[in-house]
Amino acid sequence: MDLGIKGRSAIVCAASKGLGRGSALALAREGVAVTINARRADALEATAAAIRKETGVKVTAVAGDITTEAGRAAVLAACPVPDILVTNAGGPPSGDFRAWSREDWLKALDASMLAPIALMKATIDGMIDRRWGRVVNITSGSVKNPYPTLGLSNGARAGLTGFVAGLARQVVKHGVTINNLLPGSHETDRLHQLAEAEAKAAGKTVEAVLEANKAYETAGRYGTAEEFGAACAFLCSAHTGFITGQNLLLDGGAYPGTL
To answer: 182, 107, 178: which is closest to 144 by C-alpha?
Structure first.
């Protein structure tokens, strides 16, 4: 299927690895010029080079912390009028809520709620003026199926979800859609980080934890960044103008609910 977005421009956050990289690559394969961001310049430049080599599209790498005003300003200077915005950030650490300070909560809110809102604020009016735009927020399956040890993520991402529910319904009449992608367990650094914390607490190896957890996955495997990216690209396509304010789970059926 031709997604109808060749020649569009996109900002993709936290795109040097994992789900962000998968999303940037999928968009580039559709002919979208991508501006990618991550903290580490070396990893980001390597990803940019790989995407350029495979797709031949324009890829602009902007290293910096997207949770800061300076980081967002640098990205927006490189791509001031994006047609597509994909927000993403590394998840907050796991743990017991009793151990989290106010500073821990503020960091989680900055990364997983306030930064995406700030980026939408900076770009949405331009999309409205052009009568076309796509915003996809990469959040977490924990929005629908909270994990006890991921309270920082549960809380911050639920806040973003509530905000999007209202905004998406205000802008869709202008040709702008906003949706959230909720990943379950995917083969990413984040999966390994959580497994490391679990392994340390249980006195097990990371490999043992990953294999044991895989057995509980409904699909019998972990998801891949490539298939996640394909779903993201579809939501950013010309065919999804009537899909907005939705929370799409990509968890291999792990969420047990009917709705």
So the answer is: 182
Q: What is the largest CA-CA distance in the chain?
A: 56
- ∠ CA 198-199-202, nearest 5°, is 85
Determine the Cα–Cα distance for residues 113 and 67; give it in Å rounded to an integer.
Answer: 10
Q: What is the pLDDT of residues 157-200, one digit of tens each?
A: 999 999 999 999 999 999 999 999 999 888 887 777 777 878 78
DSSP label at 131?
T
For 238, the 3-state DSSP assignment is coil
Long-range contacts of 240-246 (CB under 8 A, 24+ apart): 240/134, 240/177, 240/179, 241/172, 241/175, 241/177, 243/177, 243/179, 244/168, 244/169, 244/172, 244/177, 244/178, 244/179, 245/164, 245/165, 245/168, 245/169, 245/172, 245/178, 245/179, 246/179, 246/180
Q: Which pLDDT tens digit goes with each residue over 47-73?
A: 999 999 999 999 999 999 999 999 999
Q: Which helix (H) or strand (E) holds 36?
A: strand 33-38
Using CA atoms, how far apart are residues 108 and 14, in angstroms rounded to an integer? 15
pLDDT at 67: 95
Q: What is the pLDDT of residue 189?
A: 77
Buried b (16+ CB within 10 A) or exposed e, 23-54: bbbbbbbbbbbbbbbbeeeebbbebbeebeee
Confidence of residue 105 (pLDDT cuts 50, 70, 90): very high
The tens digit of pLDDT for each residue in 203-246 reads 888 887 888 788 778 999 999 999 999 999 999 999 999 999 99
* pTM, to two decimals: 0.93
**Ordered strands of the 33-38 beta sheet:** 59-63, 33-38, 9-12, 84-87, 133-138, 176-183, 247-250
